[in-house]
Amino acid sequence: MYQLIKKEGNARRGQFATVHGTVETPAFMNVGTSAAIKGGISSYDLVDLKCQVELCNTYHLHVRPGDDLIHDMGGLHKFMGWQRPILTDSGGFQVFSLSTLRKIQEEGVYFQSHVDGKRIFMGPEESMRIQSNLASTIAMAFDECIENPSPREYVEKSCARTTRWLVRCKEEMARCNARPDAINPHQMLFGINQGGTYDDIRIQHMKDIARLDLDGYAIGGLAVGETAEEMYRIISAVEPFMPVDKPRYLMGVGTPINIIEAVDRGVDLFDCVMPSRNARHGHMFTWDGIINIANNKYARDDTPVDPHCSCPTCRRHSRAYIRHLFKSNEMLGMRLAVMHNLWFYNTLMEKIREALDEGKFTEFRDHYLPILGKRI
């Protein structure tokens, strides 16, 4: 259940109530693909890092350890020790990212496992059953993510198939939630808007899937080859046709700048591997711009990574120490860097919400857009 509290332009401040707790929006979902954040961050750490929602991946968990095993262990929340909302991606993005190992047909997609080469079939019904076994708070519909740019004719056919798959997802989700052994009989379903970089296809697809009255809607198939300007254009084109009373999720995006720009265009939820992946390579986000902690100039720097930050890393450690850990290939360096970047992203969303509460989002946007993407 989504409640729109207030707006500033198209930017939305809201609350999204789920069976696992209420999410204050706009919000960033921290990506724990295989039921863990890469970099040695536990579910208990995530609470301290102000994470509201964790995202896990259906395909990866189906391959290993197996969704049946997770169901038998009491579901994903119990398995990983996380009590707040979880969103599971449908496996549809793997249709895109494993393009050399797949074959798409009307019934679904034939995969070759990236782990052991085993042949896998996944369609809308299989994706819903796997996600039901995982018992996430929110299940994503099974779709095809299209590379940008793609030929118009292919995009039209793909979108029509994604809509047919979505109808099957909704029917199967209702069956799964009614099963006597359903761990989460209140599991929600989000549909995904596709259409490449064609505004008219995007708009028509959004109209088509909005009629299905789902629990939320995502914009998928962006940040996969198009420019940032094209992405912003698509969001602006689709937004007027997205239900006002449902949460809006921009999948796989992105940088702090992308997030601020997308909030400005009416998006509520985000996810991206960027904060943790960049951290593991020593790239750390600060309120003055982005630093590479491996640089020589930090070798004797006894200041925090970010003097404006109160994360556990910045409260306790210097740039010089974290640089030393990276240069020594100590795992602790990665962990401290990932903790900092996740705190930064979750604090960014907190500040966006505060700015919206105070009617100062435009001022916030104009102040930080020139700063946060800058490399120091």
UniProtKB/TrEMBL annotation:
One GO process term, biological-process aspect: tRNA queuosine(34) biosynthetic process
Pfam families attached to this UniProt entry: TGT
Pathway(s) this gene product operates in, as recorded in its UniProt entry: tRNA modification; tRNA-queuosine biosynthesis
UniProt keyword list: Glycosyltransferase, Metal-binding, Queuosine biosynthesis, Transferase, tRNA processing, Zinc
Active-site residues, Swiss-Prot/TrEMBL: 89, 271
Residues annotated as domain tRNA-guanine(15) transglycosylase-like: 10-368
Enzyme Commission number(s): 2.4.2.29
Family: Belongs to the queuine tRNA-ribosyltransferase family.
Subunit structure: Homodimer. Within each dimer, one monomer is responsible for RNA recognition and catalysis, while the other monomer binds to the replacement base PreQ1.
Listed name of the protein: Queuine tRNA-ribosyltransferase
Organism: Zongyangia hominis
Gene designation: tgt
